[in-house]
Specification:
Shape: globular
Number of strands: 36
Number of helices: 11
Strand content: 35-45%
Structural class: alpha+beta
Amino acid sequence: MSEEKSAVPAWEQRFRAARVSLPDWAEDAPDRALYVSNSTGTYEVYAWDRATGTHRQVTDRPNGTTDAELSPDGAWVWWFDDHDGDEFGVWRRQPFAGGPDEEAVPGLAPSYSAGLALGRDGTVVVGRSTDEDGTTLHVRRPGTAEPVEIYRHEEYGGVGDLSHDGTLLAVDHTEHGDAMHSAIRVVRLHGDGVETVAELDEVTGRDEPRGVACLGFAPVEGDTRLLVAHQRTGRWEPMIWDVATGAETALPLRDEQGRELPGDVSAQWRPGAGELLVEHEYEARSELFSYSLADGRLTRLDTARGTVGGATARPDGTVEYLWSSAAEPSAVRSTAGAVVLRAPGPVPPGSVPVEDVWVDGPGGRVHALVQRPAGHAPGDGPLPTVFEIHGGPTHHDSDSFAAGPAAWLDHGFAVVRVNYRGSTGYGQAWTDALHERVGLIELEDIAAVREWAVAGGLADPQRLVLTGGSWGGYLTLLGLGVQPESWSLGVAAVPVADYHTAYADEMEALKSLDRTLFGGTPEEVPERFTASSPLTYVEQVRVPVYISAGVNDPRCPIRQIDNYVERLERLGKPHEVYRYDAGHGSLVVEERIKQLRLEIDFVRRHLGMPGGAAGGAE
């Protein structure tokens, strides 16, 4: 390694190292694939001809591109074109081998995306979401020039899947007004219209709603079986629903010892539809199985302990998957035993493994992932500690590689990540507990883990940082006001800061989620929005605050952040703000490094720690 390269800190090397997503291949041309990579320093879409081994960059935009799909015949790359990360745009397409971009479905105005389905016969279904129209779905059949609207509803929904022959369309919807528990409608496409074939609704009229979600039609001509995820047993698991007959087939997923898989389970069809590829997620880790529909046998596939970040079953019988652990960077691997795809250039430095911790909280045992800086064993401490809070809220932290936490570890901080109530992966009751007392529920769980970390000697209570992005940024600002004596500093990225204004400005999909979480709009339940808004508690903030925000963010819009910052200024609270020209996060590597450098510098300066990162807020 050259002297110049060796001088680059390990944490920056992790960000700059090229990485790739799991390749997605064309149904009828499996040698043609798409993936996303940051090889140029910005996340863009790449086409991969596996037969020739050639790779080609498809998109090239200043703020990056990540949403793309291949047509079933592999002839076209479809990609979503928004404006500087605002998520509002149109679909464009480009020949797989290269060529000029063209508007994929002329006649559709820009919108937020609500899904896309590309049929083998040339049928196209585009999902759109706008504040004015709610959700609309549009179909363009082969031989027609103009798309036709086939669905409209004020609540959020989207494209589920097209059947293999292009005659049936599954629609995921929340017409009942519960954005956390969707329903499915299947319609038959004919001429310029549709007719309803079947409905699967586990929400309407039930005291305990259960969600269902489309996982995909069987990849066989004329097959009317739809793979569905459901919550009937209090967790996500798959079943098969024949939409023509209404028959439902439960899938008794038990391992070789006859034990039922704990945690959440998802699945996808394997080519030929005789087997399923099963993805099992439990306690922040995941693994893969193959399930035979003929004899009900569940066979575990060989994956290391860690997290599978996506998997796909190839026509040759192999399974390719993206794997990583907290200590080991990601790579696209195969059950054949090889690394299928690794980005060019050096592999990023590894990090330290996670320790599982369970803490008794007010709503049950809380799972946290703990990492100590290299060279520090249990019992060392107390250490400066970062509580890095995940976004979502319907998401969870896992034993997977992440450059952000690794950077804090490199700078001598312990890192604690909490899968609070509202997180996925611990059953429906844990996720659904987040209701009405939004934000305050999660903070109770975070407080329980904080008490464990301090009482056990891990965390130094005088050097305790609360940080996170998106929903994690929201919980950071709320925590600084609701628990002012618990934290030494707060670092919030793209947060909700003023909930009333955030609701007014955010994209419709987020409005729908907020109505579900709070039980109504700010006009209908203003006291709940007020009780859960960081702005309500800004006067109680006692420690310095750092905030970063994307000026084009449709999820946590800039105006509500400006409102919070103005109150900090009027109150004379110490704070720093960094605004950047992008949306809900940046796809530019150097911008991400800059943001984390500013955060680390802010924390080290205010904690009086030497050797802070160079540079201040701009």
